Amino acid sequence: MSGDTSYMNKHLWELDQELFTMIQDEKNRQKECLEMIASENYTSLSVMECLGSCLSNKYSEGLPNARYYGGNEFIDKIEILAQKRSLATFSLDASEWGVNVQPYSGSPANFAVYTAVVEPHGRIMGLDLPDGGHLTHGFFTPQKKVSATALFFEPMPYKVDPDTGLIDYDQLAQSARLFKPKVIIAGISCYSRVLDYKRFRQIADECGALLMADMSHVSGLVAAKVIASPFDHCDIVTTTTHKTLRGPRSGVIFFRKGVRQVKPSGEKVMYDLEARINAAVFPSLQGGPHNHQIAGIALCMAQAQTEEFKNYQQQVVKNAQALCTKLQSHGYKISADGTDVHLLLVNLKSVGLSGGKAEFILDEVNIACNKNTVPGDASALNPSGIRLGTPALTTRGLKEHHFSKIADFIDAAVKLGLEIQKKSGPKLVEFKRVAVEDFKDQIEKLKNEVKDFALGFPLPGHDDY
Ligand SMILES: Cc1ncc(COP(=O)(O)O)c(C=O)c1O
């Protein structure tokens, strides 16, 4: 390509077959596979058009009408539109809530919040990762501060009750009284029940903490009013926009404005979150906003206000519940005994197949999910469960009876896994070897059934890439 700029206007498929084939392979995998990773979804063709637009070319450091570069007349309009629609999607009044739509994704959004409101080595409390929290809620192990949120801040995790799988709010309250965190994080990556934001608020008030919800996983359900809104009780709310919200891969921070508290003397204490959070996003942590993503946010927030979106989110939950019921009828134990949301956690301890082996065999038969710790697991490296989510497949149009069929596929795969394990013994490497060497035909047969089933449902986006 050296010296020749004619390539600048060629299509990817004309220019780079090697790369294009890889993208096509991924598209085919998405078509042929049952995508059950709870954090994934298929975004719309129109969001993809925003992501592939000229907006990717533009630098616009700063905020609308206060930029460090020229030429931002239209970029300003787009960002203001994304802000307005984000507030409208969650029925927020602009005099009480502000929003920053510039975080590159969920992790930078969370880090920006702590940067804004917690001093270095200040204290935060989040749900422990093995109990269903996220890395960016302060994950560390005895050996390592795994997340930078544990390196630069001092986290203390709270836990779920190992018997019920439900958050132990009493224990959280007790720890918070002693630890006195600056921020309590109410958010999950793997927890199938609705959060009690009112209780979180009481606990935060008791120790003077700010309450932050990370609604990344459930923001689509909140937008559609299928589950309770964190906005009624929180000071700050962060979200990704690519999970249940079905938008571009990006992040958003909402923050309260106006009066925080009226003292007994009548003196008003005002929120000071807006300037601090905006400055934390830029210039503290990020540079130029990703304007193509911000346009995608504007679009997905408008889509999230439609009746169709509400129906979609209701279906997501119905599907998760149908999957849950059928798996329970096959004898599987579901953590927290069911689901109110888009995901469920299958506890495989009593089945006798590890989460890692289940994930592997499911992947072999074209069902994508992830191994996950279940309450009481001793090792995060060898978890006993799998997390299953319904958002992506619901986007493809699957209904309750389809998920009942999927439960049968999962059951068949787990039973095949147990057969393999009888021959391989407990080691995962051996299990994988025996599976591909000695159970090739059984795997192929089930895989083809799953593939034929999956191909019956369309995928949004470009046809073949
Ligand atoms: C609750 C929660 N917060 C934050 C994130 C981080 O988002 P990202 O992967 O976009 O950085 C995730 C991602 O899975 C999440 O589940």
TrEMBL record:
Entry GO terms, CC: mitochondrion; nucleus
GO process terms (BP): glycine biosynthetic process from serine; tetrahydrofolate interconversion
Sequence positions bearing N6-(pyridoxal phosphate)lysine: K243
CDD domains assigned to the protein according to its UniProt record, in alphabetical order: SHMT
Assigned keywords, A-Z: Coiled coil, One-carbon metabolism, Pyridoxal phosphate, Transferase
Keyword Coiled coil in record: yes
Coiled coil: 429-456
Domain Serine hydroxymethyltransferase-like: 14-410
EC number: 2.1.2.1
Cofactor(s) this protein requires: pyridoxal 5'-phosphate
HAMAP family from the UniProt entry: SHMT
Similarity comment text for this entry: Belongs to the SHMT family.
Name of the featured protein: Serine hydroxymethyltransferase
Organism of this sequence: Nilaparvata lugens
